[in-house]
Amino acid sequence: MAQHRPRIVVVGAGIIGSAITYNLAIQGADVLLLDKGHTAGSGVTGRAFGWINVINGTPGDQSYALWREAVAEYRALQVVLPTAFACARSGALLWKSTAEETETFAELHRHAGERVELLSRKTLQELEPRIRRAPDLAAFSPDDLALDPGQLAIDLVAAAVAAGGSTLFGATAYAIETANGKVSGLKVGHETIPADIVVMSAGPGIQELTDGLGIQTGLTTSPALLLRYGCNRPIISHILRGPRLEIRQATDGTLLVAKSYVANGDENLPKLIGETLLAVMKDELDLPAQVTLKSAEIGERPVFVDGLPRMGFLSEVENLYLAVGHPGVILAPLMGRVTAEEIMEVRGKNATLTPH
Ligand SMILES: Cc1cc2nc3c(=O)[nH]c(=O)nc-3n(C[C@H](O)[C@H](O)[C@H](O)COP(=O)(O)OP(=O)(O)OC[C@H]3O[C@@H](n4cnc5c(N)ncnc54)[C@H](O)[C@@H]3O)c2cc1C
Asked: Which end of the chain is least crowded, N or C, by CB within 10 Å?
């Protein structure tokens, strides 16, 4: 048992934990990824819209520079893991309530160094003929990507396993065990899985683990709604974001709409919002009559008040690493690489800790 024990245990196979595990595994680390779900991407990652972009950020903000770095990291990942991007689409079209606002918006991002073009109504209609009331001007962000985050997590885990990493699904971590101020293992059911280093990438589930250690991280959650509509023919080929709608179409035809969400105690609210948005979609787009709402799911996004992610070893317990933040899908490849580099450095220093 001792010689087989995993030295690095990653808790949470969302997009962030999957990216970390992939990066650790390809560097030859002894890594175990565990998740309470039965597949990677079954947490909030499976409810994400999947828009990889910088354009939704605010130029000048610290997060804007971070998103840019993260998007560049996606390009690098696409080169080494092309199959994971087989269904990705590129390009987003955005417009504001007035042409002046759209122009200002595009100019702001261009000035910040982003590749953004302004398109006339005619060009927009050529690109997306099903938009009913095309605006006079639209901003085109050609480098944005749309992908299925749950599938990407699955693909990252498959690549991690191929590189020698291991996984344990259907396993809930109840507590982090420590000895002499250091991580010693993870309590999973009635068992303890030994670990030299634990990476907490359990998204909103991190809070329970840190509470057990009396550590305050400041992590909170913010709900958002992912609506899926069944559709059997191609309607749009880019991500569209106007004042009333944020929508994209998956390769299987499903139309995906993301919406911020405030609960009011009515459990039918997500479905009601989904039906209301279907009317908006029909108003904005020339849709076939048989488009129907398939699901309306709330996802709790793990966030910090400053809008920045957290990545690093915690000072309270030695060898306990925290990796979480929003927007996690955009940030995952970057967080995965940086986390793995930091951990490999510490692992190198502690190489004598666990005999192999
Ligand atoms: C509607 C919507 C749209 C969004 N759109 C985008 C977008 O376009 N772009 C973007 O970047 N982000 C988007 N997000 C945010 C994005 O979904 C999250 O930032 C990201 O998925 C967080 O990933 P994660 O790996 O940290 O968390 P998760 O995906 O939740 O992964 C955590 C994993 O940990 C597991 N876990 C939890 N507790 C335990 C435990 N105790 N033991 C074992 N396993 C545990 C869970 O099962 C889960 O699989 C959106 C979110 C929503 C809701």
From this structure: N
| Residue 6: per-residue pLDDT | 52
Q: How many CA atoms lie within 13 A of 202 on its CB side?
A: 23
Give the CA dihedral 144, 148, 153, 155, nearest 10 degrees. -100
pLDDT reported for residue 353: 40
What's residue 5's pLDDT?
Answer: 40
If you take atom 33 of ligand 1, which residue's CA is the nearest one?
Answer: 12
Which residue's C-alpha comes closest to atom 21 of ligand 1?
Answer: 45
Q: Is the full-model pTM beyond 0.85?
A: yes
Q: Tell me the backbone φ, ψ of residue 16, rounded to 5 degrees.
A: -75, -50
Domain 91-143+221-302, CATH class in plain words: alpha beta
pLDDT tens for each residue of 148-159: 999 999 999 999
Which portions of the chain are predicted below pLDDT 70?
1-6, 347-356
Give the model's pLDDT for residue 32. Answer: 97
Instruction: Specify the pLDDT at position 356.
Output: 28
Could you tell me how far CA 346 lies from the centroid of its own chain? Answer: 26
Contact 233, 253 (CB under 8 A): yes
Q: Which of 9, 20, 35, 186 to mutate to test the pocket of ligand 1 (most atoms within 8 A of CB)?
A: 35
Atom 27 (ligand 1) nearest CA: 203
In the chain, where the domains are located: 2-47+150-219+305-349, 91-143+221-302
Could you write out the DSSP letters of every residue in 122-152? Answer: HHHHHH-TTBSS--SEEEEEEEEEE--HHHH
Among 64, 248, 329, which is best to mutate for testing ligand 1, by the most ligand atoms less than 8 A from CB? 329
